[in-house]
Amino acid sequence: MTSTVERETAPAQRTPLYESHRRLGARLIEFGGWWMPVSYPAGIMDEHRTTRTAVGVFDVCHMGEIHFRGERAGEAVQHLVTNDISKLTDGAALYTVVCWPSGGIVDDLMVYRVSARHYLLVVNAANLEKDRRWFMENVGAWCEIADASAETGLLAFQGPRAEEALQPLAGVRLRDLGRMRFVPACEVAGMSVWIARTGYTAEDGFEILCSATDVARVWERLVEAAAGVGGKPVGLGARDTLRLEGKLSLYGSDLRDDTTPFEADLGWVVKFGGADFIGRGALAWQRAVGVRRRLVGFEMTGRGIARHGYPIYDASGNGVGEVTSGGPAPTLGKNIGMGYVPVELSRPGSALQIGCRGKLVTARVVEGPFYRRKT
Amino acid sequence: MTNESTPDDLLYTKDHEWARLEDKDGQTTATIGITRFAVDHLGDVTQLELPKPGDSLRQGQIFGSVESVKAVSDLFAPLSGTVVKVNGMLYAAPEHVNTSPYRDGWMVQIVVARFAEKEILMDPASYRTFLHEQAE
Question: Is residue B85 a contact partner of residue B107, using CB atoms and an 8 Å limit?
Answer without folding.
Answer: no
